[in-house]
Amino acid sequence: MKDQCIAAINQINGWRDQTIQQINQHVDVQIRILETDFEQLQHNLHEKCEENLDTTRAYCSAQNIELFNELENACRLLEFHMIQLETVTSTMNTYRVVTIKEQIERKQKEKSDASELKTNKSEEISIVENINTTLDNGRENKDLSVQLVSSISDKTE
Length: 157
Prior knowledge:
Blueprint: H1 2-61, H2 65-76, H3 100-134, H4 139-156
Helix pairs in contact: 1-2, 3-4
Keywords: Coiled coil
Coiled coil: 97-124
C-alpha cells in the first residue's frame, strides 16, 4: 500500500515538473517575442526620428516656418502601437486524488446501477414471455410484443 502511495506521489511530482517546464518554455518564447518586437519598435522609432530631424533641418535651412509647424503637429499626432498582453484561457490536464471513500461510493453506485439494469432486463424478459403465451393470435400480437420490449429498452438506456 505504501508503494502505491509513493508511486502516486512520484506521478504527481512528475506532472508538476513537466507542467512547470512547459510553463517556463512558454514564458521563454513569449519573452523572446516581446524582446524582438521591442527591438523592432526601437529601430522603427530611431529611423522615424532621423527622418524627421532631416526634414526639420531642411525646413529650418529653407526658413519655411509653415512647413516646420506642420511637421511639429504631425510629430505630436504620432501614435505608436505598444506591446500588449492578453490572457489566453486554455485547458490543462491535472491529477486529482480519488479518496478511498469516493472509490467505495463509486463502486456502490456502479453495483446499484448494474443491479437496476439487471432487474429491468428480467422484467423485460418476463413481459415478453407473458405476451407470447397469453396473446398467441397471430402476427399482430408478435409485433406488439416487440414494440413493448423496445419501449422498455429505451427507458433503461
